[in-house]
Amino acid sequence: MLSEFSLIDKFFKKSAPQNSETRLGIGDDCALLSIPNGYELAITTDTMVENVHFFANANPAQLGHKLLAVNLSDLAAMGAKPLAVTLALTLPNVNEAWLSEFSKGFLNLAQRYGVDLIGGDTTKGALTLTVQAMGLVPCGQALKRSTARVGDLIYMTGLLGEAGLGLKIEQGYDCKAENAEAHFHTPLPRIETGLALRGIANACIDISDGLVSDLGHILKQSNVGACLEWEKLPLSDEVKTYLEKTGDTFMPLIAGDDYELCFTVPAQHAHRVPENCTAIGIIEAQSGLRLKKFGYIETFTAKGYEHFS
Ligand code: ADP
Ligand code: MG
Q1: Which domains does the chain possess?
Q2: Which atom, in ligand 1's list, is nearest to the CA of 117?
């Protein structure tokens, strides 16, 4: 059986650092990063636990990809450029075939976004995967949750409810929707859009727990409310068909795992919003979240939704 050190050498210590800020990578007691003048280090961490965040039989390459993607998505939501990550692995046993696939999924995505794997920890126990991701953002330019303003337009990247549909398919809903399945298993973090939104968006968050829940964080922390327009939500034909067939009307609004960005923009910057984004609503002074659907307005509460008028 491989020792901890040969496991790291064999599967994770693959390439030289891609960034000049990475002064020292895997192998010492700590890694060393230098932060360029005028930049702040954005730091985030996310854990995935077997049977909580993924199924026990999950494809290891997709798992490696998704673990890194969900962490990079938090950097994207902050407008930070990914720099480096650490990886803490708790494994029930050393399964080389599993580790080989997992590390490929992880390191391919790291390569794609120019991220250095600079260290981590390896322990024995129930399968638990943790990443800490670090990125750079010019001082004062990070896209926070607490800075939405009344009158801002609310936008989101991509499509809503794709990962939600992917999960339904995983659970037995019968339809062919390659994009939804890809979104669920191998989401791509919206790094480029996050960087493009510096100086344009007032507030930003990534949709990991569902639009209602995540937009709710912006509203609460910014002390504002909002109204979303159902007819403007970017839904794929497959999601629309799912809604018609099942009557599960609010799936796109409450399903998690999309990893799209939701952000608010003052009207004077609307023309600078990137093309892959859709305006879906507006920030209002009245607290709470409302949904305008076929001319009616419904109010969402923590428990679900209730009719308003
Ligand atoms: P320490 O005893 O100081 O905690 P370790 O023996 O845990 O160090 O790790 C040795 C080196 O390998 C360190 O540089 C550590 O960051 C790195 N490392 C350990 N596990 C991983 C992993 N899963 N992925 C990447 N690097 C790792
Ligand atoms: Mg250690």
Answers
A1: 4-138 (3.30.1330.10), 153-299 (3.90.650.10)
A2: 25
